[in-house]
């Protein structure tokens, strides 16, 4: 039916070229007030993959691609109204309405829908009788739950067989989100130099996405996480501006509400609680929160072409959702209210979960304060200078609570006390940029920047980073543009303390803590070289050439463990050819190369029966290499006097490799690193071919025929294995991965559309 | 709530900052007359202006095109100042010498590639009216100091033209030299063009967001021309659920989302810079499973890797969520 509709529409469009009156071909001279494009579309090919419609909706049949109505001269040219829309009545539709009085006030209303499809292959036998509650159907659960002793317990393999059978009848899941945003903005100009503004937006996200849960160490149970978020935002502000300077005052507020705040799910293999074997699990999803911010900004134009700019923006974030109990597992003993927790290590027999929580909620409070001051001057025209100072405080005044114990994954009491650490930091920057203009639009400049980062509750309490560099811009000739820059940064980590109380706090009585020579990548001493060059040449109106090169090279020389090198290069070439005023051809190529090297050590903590194994012979190294190529060629222009043809082909191809090597001698006693193997290479390729033929007929009518071909290929061991839903994890004997099978396979899709554009 | 904030320890710095801010405003007002006088001294003799009708005589097509633009309508139909009433000469400067000289680029301010004026002089023409709003921090910004002009990205002589492929959010104010805003930015930021075409991407190419959702290219006091004070504050504009505060926080997450994610596009799932478990291995080697290389066939490596179990990795508010599993 749709194919017939397509051919019918195509026929009418072609015939219209011949049967329209001659005067329809007359050149348009008057300004158009509106436009619309509508037509029919037919899809072919293998397009079941979620990747094809990841953030879009491409229905077959009739469509309205876009429309616009521009009434800009209402009521004696004093008022305006324009309304535009795209993907009308589709799941990714969006609309914009502007109306108001020129130079006085304006209302703007916006509506936008964005789908996000995660997978089309997800399945589960869990039911969701109410939002966030997942149950196993009774008959199925009675099959999966092992018979009571003395009958022998099920083996993992037996459970797998049972699961495979159960999954035969699993329901297909809708694993997608839809984000709807509506907003209204009002701006008012009370006087020539003043502006007032008020904005409100409401954003709703509803759907499900794949989400991992765990009931015990060897059992991953993937579920569809229910999403039902609502975010309200309000912003109001005023501004004054004149030749002498200006200032802005703003207040913004954001209120986030999660309407499904917990996730509860059944253990398919257990219907009665037991220690180490709960009948259900419960997880706390993202809590409601709010954020508010004031912003004051001002700038003053001073003599000698100097401008002083400043801003100060205090903000605060709040979160006080009630805590859930430690566990839903009723078999875990609860300590008496007067119980005195013994010192570690705690005898297993005495383990119990605290009878109460140290507080009913976090009373989470964070305050931020951003302050910026900048002076930019061209007192001497050829010597531009700017000096800036910036301070950003991220203060966490949330309560630091001591939990005498907690329950690990609803299984058992951990035997460890924990305290949450309110992490915070303060960042200060001082910058200098001093230039010399040696020719028109051509300059060289020296750069310096200092950054100090003070952190609370992290391994490194204070770090300084100094950056020096230069930038060079040459644009004195109208056909040549050259921009280059280089920066060298040196970050110290002299006071790195691996024993500093930081998250996570050790590993309990048999834990080892982090290895002392580890340097976490965001805190480690680092030398960074960063260079960029951009060249653009347009020697004639016929030819154009552009190229760029960039590299960032991070060397973590003091990190014996952790990330040691992070190096990337990229270069691009672009070529344009305009053989005729109305024809343009282009070709582009980009290559990116990334290389990371990291080092770690496999470590086994001490147990009641064995000493710790923390030998350098168990060191291992991993190198990651990513290679990404991008190609594009295209044509845009007239093929005849009244025919416009545009076409392009693009390819994005990525290949990722992870190599891992044990550095120790496997023949030495205590060698542990038996799993240091290269991962299979992963790759993905996205091809796109688009050809569009448009025939402007005059009087605003333009039939259009468009063909799009997209092809996505992917090789990724991490996703390919999940389609089995139920996998024996070979790292452990007793482990099960009960996934939803969220695969994202490749696709090949042909999209043929015939449409009519009409400008009126 | 405000009282809580007032009593906390940032108050000292906030007050100090506010004083400095007030000093800037005071300075602005006190220097206003001087700067105004300087501006006045630069004003041209009125006799040097010829009016838009004279320009039309030779530049009729350009004038007809410009009069339908937002700026054309503002200047011709709703002028608010003597400057705007000058029409073409508001931007191109006084035209008498140009008219009397029979045309030529040396006697008028031109904005094309062959313009004889340096970048800051061209920009100054636009900043006569547009130094407010997003341009408050233009001077000394990255783009200003690299010699970019307003017309590197914008054109004002043509009415708004919808982009060919509609690959950007709807806007009522499009005056770009390219058909989409992203293509404007890609003129120099060529790597980004490749990144938005990667398999893991935000909906850039679907036209749902664009560069200016996160960046203000006209200058901000924030790093990387971000609109908000930090990377995270920027990300929270759409991902408010990850804002917290949480009982159990993951410090690198709270400090900077880009420690793990590449916002412009990645060939790894979830915009990650590296696949798990290697991403997590970079920092975690306390003992047991995070220190093991892990085979590809294990739950540590397939599907979502570490977050198969540690799914609340952005923060947990559960009393038993210390390991981000609850």
Mean pLDDT of chain B: 85
The share of residues in helices of chain A is: under 10%
Structural class designation of chain B? mainly alpha
Oligomer: heterodimer
Q: What spatial form of chain A do the alpha-carbon principal axes imply?
A: globular
Q: What about the largest sheet of chain B?
A: none
Strand content of chain A: over 45%
Major beta-sheet overview of chain A: 26 strands, antiparallel, barrel
Number of helices of chain A: 5
- Most extensive interface: pair and counts? A-B, 218 and 138 residues
Secondary-structure-based class of chain A equals mainly beta
Q: Kindly report how far apart the N and C termini of chain A lie.
A: 31 Å
Report the strand count of chain A.
38
Tally of structural domains of chain B: 3
What can you tell me about this protein's structure?
The complex is a heterodimer of chains A (760) and B (326). With 760 residues, chain A is mostly beta strands. Among the domains of chain A are: 120-159 and 179-340, no CATH class; 365-398 and 423-505; 529-606 and 613-679, no CATH class. Helices cover 6% and strands 56% of the residues of chain A. In chain A, the strands form five sheets. Chain A has a 26-stranded antiparallel β-barrel. Chain A has a four-stranded mixed sheet with strand order 7-8-14-15, with no helix packed on it. The longest helix of chain A is centred in the first third of the chain and has 18 residues, at 2-19. The two termini of chain A are 31 Å apart. Chain B is elongated and about 85 Å long. Chain B has three domains: 48-108, no CATH class; 118-227, no CATH class; 240-308, no CATH class. Chain B starts with a helix and ends in a 45-residue tail after the last helix. At the A-B interface, β2, β3, β4, β5 and β11 of A face α2, α4, α8, α12 and α14 of B.
Task: Kindly list the characteristics that best describe this protein.
heterodimer; A: mainly beta; 4-stranded mixed beta sheet; 5 helices; globular; B: 326 residues; mainly alpha; 3 domains; 15 helices
